[in-house]
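Researcher: We plan to redesign the surface later, but first we want a full-length starting point. Tokens attached.
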């Protein structure tokens, strides 16, 4: 059995920068982080041990005169307002790609706001996801969030539609949604009504898919390492499954059951890969665990 870690898996530059910022700022004193710094419980635990305290929005409202780090997902304008009111120093580690998307949505909202055209800003993303909350905030929470084609009934095809995407969604699904909106506009005889779509999926994620699938294809068993809360992990895991049905999702070595370990040891090639939120050290630890435990 040969166990290989995919060299293209692991933190994207947005997450790497946020974590480096946290480590650097922790050396200067107490630091809070609004929400889990990354959708990976193991990495959150590691930083917690270094002193990074995770807080939620209720905590933010009650805290005064402290330093709070904003993670790569970005935040809505209300977070900055609360921080200002409470004399909280913001250490802003929002990813520049997300900030740019926020700006584009904000500008679109400002351009259509008050024009009485009934225009709809639509975000293809996961409702309640931190990044999506930040994006909705740019539209004063008027944007319509759709998670899949099945939710397109929320749109009014007789009114203008401006579609954007959460950065970590799948390009294929986005394209399917665009095609379906075009189709329904034809069916509704509203083809002349504005439909603008912006593929704002982060290429840091999208470009990984092909390489990840090549990696998955080249192994007999694939161990995909990701956090349960990570939407990027869910998408990339599905991408692996598409090309190799012997792919297993684990969050830590505790998820490696005797059956999975036996499956690995019966294989010639085992590949370990992960999401943009999966730390390299965790994939390394899982490799060691597989090599030293055969499940019997
Ligand atoms: S996936 Fe892209 S947008 Fe999201 S944090 Fe990473 S680099 Fe930034």
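Model: Full-length starting sequence:
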């Amino acid at each position: 059995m040969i166990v290989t870690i995919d060299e293209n898996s692991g933190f994207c530059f947005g997450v790497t920068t946020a974590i480096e910022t946290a480590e650097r700022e922790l050396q200067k004193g107490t630091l809070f982080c609004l929400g889990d710094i990354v959708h990976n419980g193991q990495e959150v635990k590691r930083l917690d041990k270094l002193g990074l305290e995770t807080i939620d929005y209720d905590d933010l409202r009650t805290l005064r005169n402290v330093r709070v780090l904003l993670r790569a997902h970005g935040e809505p304008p209300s977070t900055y307002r609360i921080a200002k009111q409470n004399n909280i120093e913001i250490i802003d580690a929002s990813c520049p790609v997300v900030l740019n998307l926020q700006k584009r949505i904000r500008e679109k909202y400002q351009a259509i706001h008050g024009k009485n055209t009934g225009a709809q800003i639509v975000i293809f993303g996961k409702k309640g996801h931190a990044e999506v909350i930040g994006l909705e905030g740019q539209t004063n929470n008027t944007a319509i969030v759709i998670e899949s084609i099945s939710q397109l009934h929320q749109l009014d095809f007789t009114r203008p539609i401006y579609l954007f995407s959460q950065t970590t969604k799948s390009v294929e699904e986005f394209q399917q949604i665009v095609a379906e909106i075009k189709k329904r506009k034809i069916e509704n005889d509203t083809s002349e009504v504005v439909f603008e779509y912006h593929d704002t999926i982060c290429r840091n994620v999208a470009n990984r898919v092909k390489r990840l699938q090549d990696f998955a294809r080249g192994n007999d068993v694939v161990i995909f390492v990701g956090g349960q809360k990570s939407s990027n992990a869910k998408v990339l895991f599905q991408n692996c499954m598409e090309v190799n049905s012997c792919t297993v999702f684990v969050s830590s070595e505790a998820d490696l059951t005797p059956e999975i370990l036996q499956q690995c040891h019966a294989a010639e090639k085992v590949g370990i890969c992960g999401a943009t939120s999966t730390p390299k050290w965790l994939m390394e630890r899982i490799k060691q665990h597989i090599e030293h435990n055969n499940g019997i």
